[in-house]
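We treat protein structure as text, and this decision shapes the records that our systems exchange. Because each token names a local backbone shape, the row as a whole describes the fold. An entry from our holdings is shown next, in its original layout:
>
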Amino acid sequence: MALTLRTPPGRARHPKAHTRKLTCRHLTEYAHLLPALATIALLAAPVAPGDVSTSGKVTPADAASAVLVLACAVRLLRDRRRLLSPAAAAVLGAPLVGFAVATVTSPDPGASATGFVRYAQVFVLVPAALVLLLRDRRDFAVVAGAVVALALVQGGIGVWQYATGTGASYQGEDVRAVGTFGPSDIMGMATVVAYGVVIAAGYALAPGRRAVRTGAAVCAALLLVPLTVSFSRGTWIATALALAVTALLAGWRQAVRVLAALAACAVLLVGGAGVGSQMITQRLASITQVTDAPDQSVTDRYTLWSAALSMWREHPAAGVGLKRFPDERDSHASLALDSGSDTAGAGQTFTREPLLSPHNMYLLALSEQGLIGCGLLAGSWAALLAAGGARLYRARRAARRPLLPAPRTAAAPGAAGRLRARGAVAPGLAAVGLLLWQAVDFLYADIGGPSTPLTAVLLGLTAWWALNSTDEPAR
């Protein structure tokens, strides 16, 4: 029997009233994600020179991330929801112990206290807030989609900078794509774009609706262009490894298709279209010359790594203290170190940026926090990677089961569960790929600069996938 809805007498029904009502309701459902979305959106705003974490200035994205943590705390108190499970609290909260030990034992506790706040924000508070705020896979997709949108915006600006010669200086030409981050944060745009590539690749490789997979594949292909003209060797290596592992996790057939697509894109970009072929070829060749004939940037990096190891040998347990690497650098570095890096272009005059970190997150943690802090921090990431990989394995096994039509009865024999499992593969691939990318990139980079809040958001997404053991249906 068909049911019809009648309009009450005397009231004319507007043809779009129901649509507006549904739209408002849907927007209200995502109100709890507004602080996270604001943190991501504010990273598209131009940052003035010097507005980086090392200068002590707070960027708009930093302020939005603080609002995100505060909003999570208010929501927990208002709704009286349960906090993190004991296992999740242990995994996310363990690095705090190392931060506290390094701060208390530091020769300059005041300076290390600011470092404690920064490290707690990036590695504990913001990730924990996202774990508590995200409710299901659709919330995950909304935040991840915002990251891809940010990557497209920054990547578009970067390609325009390369095409018009208004980017950062590279080999005497203003062609390096840096987006709105400027030459003072030379890795900012490359990091954001790489995040977008990994997320889009995860959704493109997972089973799901054809429109979603096609759109994600197109986004990933488009983002490879600004990633290429960023001339960031470390980002290239991390992205290639993350995409290869993600494709293998999605299946052997998917891996073959991805490798073929990447080879085709490389031929079209460099060989066919001639997009910076000479510069890109030289940059790629320099990756294999890091031991035979390294350039000055590689020499500086090796020298900084040696200095970090020297600091750790003097303070093996608790390190020299948070934010103390710049103060201890000159007493542990050799004469081969060039203490500054030349930056210019993208609307900024020539300046020398001081080298205030070893450009290796593991060695930075080892030198400033010792074995205690570095072990707890790296152990937390390893636990997230293991838990996220195990959950992805379970989701893929459930998704491979034959999906039968659901009977017209109240008891559907597992069909809905298999549909949920198929939908869970996409965020799983994206989360595991992001964590793998970050683990590899931290071999060549560390936190710092205006793009750091986005790292905290991405760690929150990966932590939600790893620590949320239930596969609730998306609304």
